[in-house]
């Protein structure tokens, strides 16, 4: 096994362990800490802090301590959130959410930078196309990483499955207020409180203890086994950057918006936050918990994560043959159809298979969004990777903030219409980016041809 593949696997399994804990907690927040909207509010704060972190932190931290130690320090920030959930209140979850948020941007920027550099260096040594290797590395990463949803939700389902009285009464008329009809201003008498009964406190402590231990294992894995990648080659190719002042480097993320391609990709990048936020915050609460109960959340999200992980590897390789544009439009059409179906579907407990069908389809589309958007940023902004990936986390985080921010104020039907609007705008502007790229390639090829003709004519005059 070459060292590049070994390091990709170490990073992938480190993220697998870390997000087994965080992903499991995130899926449960809207149902578990529903009082005064504490759970959803904490998630909104996380991604709000992520936005601020994305603007200023990643380029400086990565250049100061390197990709490896950026990942290690950032992972420790995630562990604090698990500790805060042992006693969930505004005084514990808000500070730990802020800490996690500020660690999130450097974590993802360092990971993306690490994989992109590793892919390009291996491609150079093997005389292969850099973008193809980077695509494969991201596909392998997301195959392993996305399976964290399987393990994290399996843990929560097995532990919460010990809760008594898990049955539901299909004769209750209040199931009609689940799904798209769920609104924050509904009377308690209309809601199905029996199905969303909270688990016993000892089960909560057991779950959080497991999640905390898994997070610590992730830190140890990265610390012991990951090689610290040398960024000198990249720095030498960008000598002008070395002469930049501290503040110029700090605001590199903001300055990166001068690239029109980055500006056009903002709605598509935000869509990634919107669609993940809806599934974790609204689908789990308004469809699953409302109709089936909180103990079913884990099993439903396992279905999403399993399909997501499998499709991540598939689409990472398939992109070599179909091109990324085909996959982006496939994901968009899939999400359009799913959102429209969710607007009209009444989630009754007797239709158990459908509760798993929607997350499976959503997982297939999300696999495309995650692998191809990360790869797209790596290819388009190869000369400014840290700022590019920091922008990715910034705008994706803004999507999360908005999705979680209006969660306690809008009906689910309104949220679905917002999803449709953001998706349409995002995919349209992405098509413009592809057009710009194609046009620039054509101009570059024409310039090379003209240069070649001039060289040939010059050589002829010398003969």
Describe this structure in words.
This protein has helices spanning 3-32, 38-56, 58-84, 90-126, 130-146, 148-160, 201-225, 232-236, 239-242, 246-250, 252-255, 260-264, 266-291, 297-322, 324-344, 352-380, 385-405, 412-462. The longest helix is centred in the last third of the chain and has 51 residues, at 412-462. With 463 residues, the chain is mainly α. Helix 13 (266-291) packs antiparallel against helix 18. The protein is globular, with a radius of gyration of 23 Å. It has a single domain (3-462), classed as MFS general substrate transporter like domains (Growth Hormone, Chain: A, Up-down Bundle). The mean pLDDT is 82. The protein is built from 18 helices and no strands.
In short:
The protein has 463 residues and is mostly helical.
């Amino acid at each position: 096994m070459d060292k590049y593949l070994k390091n990709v696997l170490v990073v992938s399994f480190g993220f697998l362990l870390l997000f087994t804990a965080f992903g499991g907690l995130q899926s449960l927040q809207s149902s578990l800490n529903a009082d005064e909207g504490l759970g959803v509010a904490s998630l909104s704060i996380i991604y709000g802090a992520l936005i601020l972190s994305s603007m200023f932190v990643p380029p400086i931290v990565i250049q100061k301590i390197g990709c490896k130690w950026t990942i290690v320090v950032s992972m420790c920030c995630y562990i604090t959130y698990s500790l805060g959930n042992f006693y969930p209140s505004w005084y514990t979850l808000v500070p730990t959410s802020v800490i996690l948020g500020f660690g999130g941007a450097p974590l993802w920027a360092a990971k993306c930078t690490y994989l992109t550099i590793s892919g390009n260096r291996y491609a150079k040594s093997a005389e292969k196309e850099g973008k193809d290797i980077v695509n494969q590395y991201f596909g392998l990463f997301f195959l392993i990483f996305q399976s964290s949803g399987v393990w994290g939700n399996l843990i929560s389902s097995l532990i919460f499955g010990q809760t008594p009285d898990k049955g539901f009464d299909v004769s209750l008329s209040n199931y009609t207020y689940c799904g798209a009809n769920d609104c924050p201003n509904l009377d308690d008498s209309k809601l199905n409180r029996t199905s969303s009964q909270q688990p016993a406190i000892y089960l909560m402590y057991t779950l959080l203890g497991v999640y905390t231990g898994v997070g610590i294992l992730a830190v140890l894995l990265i610390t012991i086994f990951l090689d610290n990648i040398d960024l000198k080659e990249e720095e030498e190719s960008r000598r002008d950057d070395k002469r930049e002042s501290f503040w110029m480097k700090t605001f590199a993320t903001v300055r990166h918006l001068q690239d029109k391609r980055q500006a056009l990709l903002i709605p598509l990048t935000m869509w990634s936050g919107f669609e993940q936020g809806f599934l974790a915050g609204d689908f789990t609460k308004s469809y699953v918990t409302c109709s089936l109960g909180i103990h079913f959340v884990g099993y439903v999200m396992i279905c999403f994560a399993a399909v997501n992980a499998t499709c991540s590897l598939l689409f990472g390789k398939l992109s070599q043959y179909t091109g990324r544009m085909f996959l982006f439009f496939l994901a968009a059409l899939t999400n359009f159809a799913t959102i429209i179906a969710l607007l009209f579907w009444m989630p009754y407990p007797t239709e158990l298979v459908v509760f798993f069908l929607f997350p499976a389809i959503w997982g297939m589309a999300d696999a495309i969004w995650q692998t191809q958007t990360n790869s797209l940023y790596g290819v388009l902004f190869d000369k400014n990777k840290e700022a590019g990936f920091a922008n990715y986390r910034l705008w994706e985080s803004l999507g999360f903030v908005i999705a979680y921010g209006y969660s306690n104020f809008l009906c689910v039907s309104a949220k679905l219409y917002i999803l449709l609007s953001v998706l349409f705008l995002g995919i349209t502007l992405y098509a413009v980016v592809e057009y710009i790229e194609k046009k620039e390639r054509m101009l570059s090829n024409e310039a090379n041809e003209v240069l070649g003709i001039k060289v040939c004519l010059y050589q002829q005059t010398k003969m």
